[in-house]
Amino acid sequence: MTTPHQTVDRVGGWLSLVCAIHCAVVPLAVLLAALGLPVISLGLFDDPRFELGFSIAAVILAAVSLGLGVRGGADRRPMLVGFALGLVLIVGSHLTPGPEWFSHLILVGGALTVAYTHRRSLRSRSCCDDPGAPAPLLP
Q1: C-alpha span between 78 and 74 (Å, rounded)
Q2: Residue 73 φ then ψ, to 5°
Q3: Do the Cβ atoms of 76 and 69 come closer than 8 Å?
Q4: Integer Rg of the chain from CA
Q5: Do residues 83 and 114 make contact, with C-beta atoms less than 8 angstroms apart?
Q6: Are the beta carbons of 129 and 121 closer than 8 angstroms?
Q7: Is the pTM of this model over 0.85?
Q8: Nearest CA-CA partner of 66 in 20, 114, 106, 111
Q9: Distance CA 65, CA 71 (A)
């Protein structure tokens, strides 16, 4: 049976991974377009509201994951460090002066850090009777 904490970590991990892919695809597509190669329209992908939505979702899901973990009595300090680092990178990427590709690189790093931390949090929780059994990423 899947616990709410495992569900939050699965959703958060997948959304963070999609966010990282999204943030990596935009600069790559811009580069390909600059080289004269055909590229799909970037209207949806280059929308700041799309990035803001991913950033807000990352903050909410990280907070819920930490809250459920603390309520469950687990030592959440390692997860707190991972989520804090990832969220600082995500927020910092929006405040970074310089070229846009650099801020996208920082954003990808932050999203991957949050995805990895969700994965570690999910694996630290047991889904079965065996306390050492890691929870699967997919149901």
Answers
A1: 10
A2: 85, 10
A3: yes
A4: 17
A5: yes
A6: no
A7: no
A8: 114
A9: 10
Tokens of residue 137, six digits: 């990423």
Task: Dig out the tokens for 133 from the structure.
Answer: 């059994």
Mean pLDDT of 36-42: 72
> Angle CA(13)–CA(14)–CA(19) in degrees, nearest 5?
100
Residue type, 124: S
Show the tokens assigned to 66: 């930490």
CA dist., res. 93 & res. 133, Å (int) = 36
Tell me the C-alpha distance between 20 and 5, whole Å: 22
Residue 3: its H or E element: none
Q: What would the pLDDT profile of 97-129 be if each residue is shown by its tens digit?
A: 888 778 888 888 988 898 888 888 777 764 443
Integer Cα distance of 24 and 109 in angstroms: 10
Compute the Cα dihedral for 108, 113, 117, 119 and give only its sign.
Answer: positive
